[in-house]
Amino acid sequence: MLETINGNLYDFPKYYDLVYGSDWKAEVDFLEACFAKHVRGKVKRLFEPACGTGRLMFRMAQAGYDVAGLDLNEKAVKFCNQRLEKHDLKPTAFVGDMCDFTLKRPVDAAFNTINSFRHLGSEAQALAHLQCVARSLRKDGIYVLGLHLTPTKGEPLETESWAARRGHLSVLSRLWVIERNRRRRQERVGMSFDVYTPTRQFRINDESSFRMYSAAQMAALLGEVGEFELLETYDFGYEIDEPIEIDGSTEDVVYILRRR
User: Which secondary-structure segment (H or E) carries 93?
Assistant: First the structure.
């Protein structure tokens, strides 16, 4: 049996970043393809709400973009800024609320690709977030928003797992559904990291809550934000030339929203 720690996975940024940052290139390539296809004019300034450890911020900064981000978790923000500084990049992450923020200057694009949006537990919070992002974008700038929808046809996924390794450190991550309440639109999930080092093996257990969105519910929400127009939708295959049509069986979606 592994030693078990009950805690917040976001408080362990080294392990979180290893798991969720391992496939950064597919997302970065997709973002740059989105900029080329969907943004009118040059893209230089970027923003990531709920940036976490900055797994994408860091790569975009290395590619020459001016990028900033915010997150509620102080440990994740510290990890992000320390890595940026280590590579002689500006430490531009800050602690903040993705529902209530203001940027000093408009950005050309914003991105939030791995379901962080669903941590917002109410319609009011979701609307506030989208309106904050819209105000932060220049005209014709885009917001790349990725999330899991709850299908109304077929059975939704119940478990997911990922594994990543760097040197002598390996992490196995699991996510499983504890409860879905469609009336309250709340999905409770268990999450764990199994961490293996040369001297120690242990498990970190956590539980989180996500707001549920069907395709129709997400469409209705976006319809309330007049500042955005929906350009295209993609799945998590990130194929820029293969946009998808959303139906009742769709789960993984990336929305491309352009500031009017």
Answer: strand 93-95
